[in-house]
Amino acid sequence: MSNVSMSKNGQESNNSHVGSKLMKTGVIAVLGAVMAMTGCVVEGGEELDALSAEAEQGEVETTGEAEQALDASPLNAELHTKITDSGARTMFTRATLQRSGAYAGQLYARTVTSNAVKLTGFTGGVFIVLRNDDGAVVGVSGLHTYGVDGTWVGTYRRDEIWIENFDPQVAAAATWLEIVQQRASSDRIPAILATIGQLKQQGCQIINVPGVCS
Length: 214
Prior knowledge:
The chain is of the alpha+beta class.
């Protein structure tokens, strides 16, 4: 059994921006009340208009900065997969793709492979697909395989960290990660590698990376 995880960047509210806007709105309201009481409404109208325009301009600028930061923020995804229907054999992967800064293009992943069967083990495999907003492939990792023994035989749980590096252009184009986990016994590996090869070619049609795309 195989499974996939799909993760997009979530939109987060900017509380500090909202608070700033409310403070400016409050100041404008107080000034309006004072001017009305002192008969300075006409003279103060232009100042109030200027403050309102400043508040609105601040909103636009702050929102733009927030959107830019969000666009370049890391992508995160995680997936727990039952390799067998009983749940006795499982894989769990958590991954982060850096899309900007000194580590732009770095995919950092942790995979835990577990087996609760007493006498027989298994080998699990994981790879990660990078996709854009349209769902098109822009990049794909290699296959990472991990074998575990039966609980009465030897090592039945492995906790591994693996890292791959993509071209920064590929990382910047990605907007969500798809984790694929499945049994990766020797007879299944050729088919899995063929799938990864096809995904790689799809990504090269979107972004042609020298040295990666043939």
